[in-house]
């Protein structure tokens, strides 16, 4: 009983953190369609800013042993946090997403990035260009 109670409290806390990320970041973060990942499209002013961001996240990922699925085109970074051994978003995913959000803000990432419109051009196969 006690353990179950702790589990419940933890997942409620996680859900609250996820809700906060999704609702307070102006469309930057969303829960993936299969609900197993947190994803963001982050738009920087320059390529150098995007690269700086990726370096900071790379350092943190090595320390935390939790690595992003991501891609970069010029000033945009698409980033996804998911945990392979889990069927749901984990605390580590949320921790990394919050870290990314803080770093993105510190690097002056553009606040409002319409997810759908920008993602299309970022991931479009090069043959269609
Ligand atoms: C053994 C090692 O810690 C695991 O393979 C880690 C590595 N980094 C990881 N990163 C992410 N995002 N999810 C994982 O499940 C994961 N597993």
UniProtKB/TrEMBL annotation:
Cited Pfam families: Pterin_4a
UniProt keyword annotations, A-Z: Lyase
Enzyme Commission designation: 4.2.1.96
Gene Ontology molecular function: 4-alpha-hydroxytetrahydrobiopterin dehydratase activity
Enzyme class per UniProt: lyase
GO annotation (BP), single: tetrahydrobiopterin biosynthetic process
Gene3D superfamilies, sorted: Transcriptional coactivator/pterin dehydratase (3.30.1360.20)
Catalytic activities: (4aS,6R)-4a-hydroxy-L-erythro-5,6,7,8-tetrahydrobiopterin = (6R)-L-erythro-6,7-dihydrobiopterin + H2O
Family, similarity comment: Belongs to the pterin-4-alpha-carbinolamine dehydratase family.
Protein name: 4a-hydroxytetrahydrobiopterin dehydratase
Species per Swiss-Prot/TrEMBL record: Glonium stellatum
């Amino acid at each position: 009983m006690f353990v179950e109670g702790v589990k419940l409290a933890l997942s409620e806390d996680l859900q609250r953190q996820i809700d906060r990320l999704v609702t307070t970041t102006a469309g930057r973060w969303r829960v993936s369609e299969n609900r197993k990942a947190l994803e963001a499209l982050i738009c920087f002013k320059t390529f150098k800013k995007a690269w700086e961001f990726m370096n900071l996240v790379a350092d943190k990922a090595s320390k935390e042993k939790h690595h992003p699925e991501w891609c970069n085109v010029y000033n945009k970074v698409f980033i996804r946090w998911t945990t392979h051994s889990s069927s749901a978003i984990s605390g580590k995913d949320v921790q990394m997403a919050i870290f990314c959000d803080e770093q993105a803000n510190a690097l002056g990432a553009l606040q409002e990035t319409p997810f759908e419109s920008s993602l299309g051009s970022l991931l479009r196969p090069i043959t269609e260009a």
